[in-house]
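Exercise 7.
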Amino acid sequence: MRTEVIVVGAGPTGLMLAYELTLAGVPAVVVEKQRTHSTQSRAGGLQPRTAEVLDLRGLLEPLLAQEPSDSTTGGHFATLPVELDCRPWRTRYPHPVNVPQIRLEAHLERLLGEQGVPVLRGHEVTAVAQDAEGITVTWHADGTPGGGDAPDGGEVRGDGEVRGGDGEIRGDGEVRGGDGEIRGRYLVACDGGHSTVRRLLGVPFPGRERRMSAVAADITLASRSETVPTERKHFSQYTRVAGGFHSILHPIGPDLYRILFGRLSGQGPDRETPVSADEVREALHAVYGPDTELGELRAASRFGDAVRQVERYREGRVFFAGDAAHIHMPIGGQGVNLGLQDAVNLGWKLAGTIRGWAPAGLLDSYHEERHPVAARVLRHTRAQAVIMNPGRDEELGTVRELVTELLGLPDTNRYVSGMMSGLDLRYPGVGPRLIDLDLTTEDGPTRASRLMRSGRGLLLSLDGRRRSVGDRSDRVEHVMAKTDEDVDGAGALLVRPDGYLAWTDTDGTPLDTALARWFG
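Solution. The predicted structure, written as tokens, is:
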């Protein structure tokens, strides 16, 4: 089998990257070790910037149509009792959006199936070899078809035939067990914190080991005490400490709860040890009393607070994204937020390189832009992990009180809400994210985000002047529009495919210089 880009890992990062490449007409194949889909909810919601990124591609509306988000409370920092207010950031999503990670993955995989993009499940990568012309991946398949039933009942297929760009993917509709190979020009490792690709290439993953072990589980309750929440509230109201446990129990659906718990001291079992119903029951009784009884343990996993990051996001023809590039304690949906933006940052740059129009250095800018972003997340999640653990130091209560007071200050709240939501992100030499302006074009009213669903760049003229993108119309769309919203005096905006401003006519830089820098 041949393709242009081999994506290893069918989590949100890998699926989003494959979708971005498909928009650009670049063939991709997704290879996933796990034969079946996860049934665990995992991240329970999307940060505001994640919601905006999905909206840029028209992916959020179908998800909300399935189950509208009822979130009306702000985000949190270290579960402290102060809502993070994202309204100063001029976003349509001032609160985290209640879309479980499992539903996002199912939606993305279904879309790829509709486009004929193979998602080869049950394929374990056993070797990776790269040369001057491309990269070869060897796998062992367990004979299970590359698809199956999606968690929401839809069907995901990995067969068919896809042609596009400069490459070709062929599939005969049948996946056979045994060893096989796939050849591509590039590989993107999106295969998680225990990345097989990273291990096979001998790429270091520096950082520190976990210092605690905790459990995340989806459960039902046979009975509950008055201390158990029955409706969605601010995350701080789900947190309790009692009986030697720290616990967060919150509703995620009709009669369905997500519980995260860990002991206040001790390392705890390793991540491979199965979570038992008795273990969950012990935590429920200790924190919420004997009147709170476990009904069904639907799914469970272990996690820790290890912190690691690869030094370089590129190794020749191999790129690292999502948890394969960085891990941290899972707090506030930061992993999904990072991973999806890794994918959207890399996708168009990789497509431009394959199609031959990318300017020098564009592909390397993926590491230059995304590595510092993840490093910052690793820093603040480490700080949150300390603040959240009341058993670590008897003086920690005073730190929590002080930070809570600081979060009540408007300027501090704005800073932290921008950091946690991803709305404050600004790459070196690049402007801030595009505000989702209300616009009027010759086709009628629209929003800025709806002009970016093709995955191309956008030249938005707001002053009535027609401008030229030269021979780049295949990668930059020019739209004339009007708006009554504040755009800091700009008459025109050039927007990268990932939604960040590459140029405005107030910069003092010629438009063609910016076009050449980002679009060849």
